[in-house]
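Quick one, T. Sequence first:
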Amino acid sequence: MKVMIVDDESAIREALGRKLAREGYDVVLCKDGLEALKEFHNRRPDLVILDIVMPEGMDGLTVCRRIREVADTPVMMLSANAITEADIIDGLNAGADEYLTKPVRLGEFVARVAAILRRSSLTTTDGEQKYDDGYLSVDLHRRHVHVSGKKIHLTPTEFKLLAVLMESSGRVVHQRDLLEQVWGREYIDDVYYPRVYISQLRRKIERDAANPAYILTEHRVGYRFERQPNVTAR
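Structure tokens:
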């Protein structure tokens, strides 16, 4: 798997690159956003790791938005500050899948790289692969989601989250199970992740995100996907 690391601090960039190379990854190193966009188009990495604050007038969130215009490649953001829910929402709005705080612990870094690459390749079950009620249409095999006939973009993590909930439609998926199935065991203590990502997913697929019909919350338990009547049959 090919991983691109973009950071203007050479010591961090090279340390992370060496660690991933020792783990068997093909690594591409870039010092700023402009170089990253050029190399992204040339090298087509499987994962991009972006420092948020970079020189040359193009920060990591801007680079992420530019990548999202052309590809669904997973993006991990590196932050020098403690990560808040507002930071995660900003990243999600830019199309990011993940956040990691500096200084980076190399063991955790490798584990999270592996986890994000795992969930970027959706493994579907033998269950139903399509859902269509006339308003929301999901094809798990082709990774297509349409709302009112318009194709919408989901990040790899958002898509995996939707798929896990759909495959258990009508049943509650406990929060810890959701963390493990979508993000991996490395994230089992990141209890705020489901809440933030569910909120973002609702904004994309619900008619009214404040009063959801598809993704329902079971307080202190978890979440469930609720199928809706076909609007064309009304």
